[in-house]
Amino acid sequence: MGKVQLLLRQHVGAPCAPCVEVGADVKKGTLIATPTGLGANIFSSVYGKVTEITDDSIIIEAADEQPDEFVPIDVPADASKLDMVKAAGVVGMGGAGFPTGVKLGIDLSATEMGEMDPEINPELPADFKIEHGYILVNAAECEPGLEHNIRQIEEQCDKVITGIKYSMEITKADKCIIAIKKKNHKAIKTLQAALANEPDITMHLLPDIYPMGEERAVVRECLGVNLTTVQLPSAARSVVLNLETICKIAEAIDEKKPCISKNLTVRGKLVGGNEAHVFMDVPVGVSVGELIERAGGIDGKYGEIIMGGAFTGKSTEMDAPITKTTGGILVTVEFPDLHGANMGLLVCACGGSEERMRELAEKMNAKVVSVARCKQAIENKPGAPLKCLRPGNCPGQVKNNMQFKKDGCEYIVIGNCSDCSNTVMASGPKMGLKVFHQTDHAMRSVGHALYRSLKVSKQVSQDIDF
């Protein structure tokens, strides 16, 4: 295993402060850094010795022997379940990284919650009110090519149900809905069996389009209400939790286990083919390169390595460490060479930032001459990440395509959701624009259809009939 690098910021908020010194012997579960504000505890994920502390990380030389035992979280005998989740350093494992102990610190039984603004939701009755408090489990595994969330349902369903019940108890929610894509037949059947005697926990089936796992999309699909770009799910009397986060909650309470490992998917241009390699309970801090080697190694020349998903991930290097929020490692095919052709960038809240799209244009040897923004992409405050007004429901892109044509673009790169990509394709090619999606190289690498014209309906029946 060698060196393990634990970043001091693996969550929303400020970096943690080290509470160990160089030379310290540590075990799995040894507390090594604590929050300085909004944040979450960080623990050693291995047995070993601290060899270096930098401004942004703690580096541990892992011992040759790695026992399964871990140091349990240090909490009083009468600690609440919420205190255990906070002490364990659990964060949103789907990529967002918001401290779960903070998210769960809400009373969803409050009757004044869930009143919908009729201007935002004109399709609802003026007196519409959400009658229950909900835990909404995001099991969409929205980024294409990733499979570790679905695998956890199939193999650890009991832990999923336990984590749900604890989350409901902590927040005083009386209902839970598990949002999962209809294509995942085996996982759905596993859940059906587990929920046979759980009347307060149900499933909602999602279409296989991106971004059904976006937090506000989960609220909209499950509860039928739209949130603004600044509203949290609590405005709809709900808390949205990633499937893996749910399991970490169960581990923190049942086992007093700190958050020291991550499930993830490695796939792409690998020796042996592009099938998904799902690794469970990988120690946080191991390198990208080590996991790629465990998956067979890179097959020849490649384009880039993406940490995260094809839509929202970033390019990375072999020595980069995985964190609590790392969901995928994708090794891509090589980029096409566009020989300096003029390119336009259509920046969307659902995909990469303008910086990421410029990086992709450079890797394709294209010259960026025009930049436009999807009309639904909102910047809540200067410099903040873009938010989509209606994730997954796009009104059209003709105006932006006309701008690209006027600016002399031969190619455009888009990073849009399934529906938005569909609207680009309705007019762009007719104007002579050649379209790349920012995920193309990743999709080709994992054997997934390219994002162009939408082939599936956005509406999915709730009946489970296989």
Task: Explain this structure.
The structure is a single chain. The protein has four domains: 60 residues, OB fold (Dihydrolipoamide Acetyltransferase, E2P); 174 residues, NADH-ubiquinone oxidoreductase 51kDa subunit (Rossmann fold), CATH 3.40.50; 71 residues, Ubiquitin-like (UB roll); 105 residues, Resolvase, N-terminal catalytic domain (Rossmann fold). It is globular and about 70 Å long. It has a five-stranded mixed β-sheet, sandwiched between helices. Strands 1-7-6-3 form a four-stranded antiparallel β-sheet, with no helix packed on it. Strands 10-9-8-11 form a four-stranded parallel β-sheet, sandwiched between helices. The chain has 466 residues and is α/β, with parallel strands linked by helices. The chain is 23% helix and 21% strand. One of its GO terms (cellular component) is membrane. It holds the Pfam family Complex1_51K. It comes from Dorea phocaeensis. This is Proline reductase-associated electron transfer protein PrdC.
Summarize the structure.
This protein is of the alpha/beta class and 466 residues long.
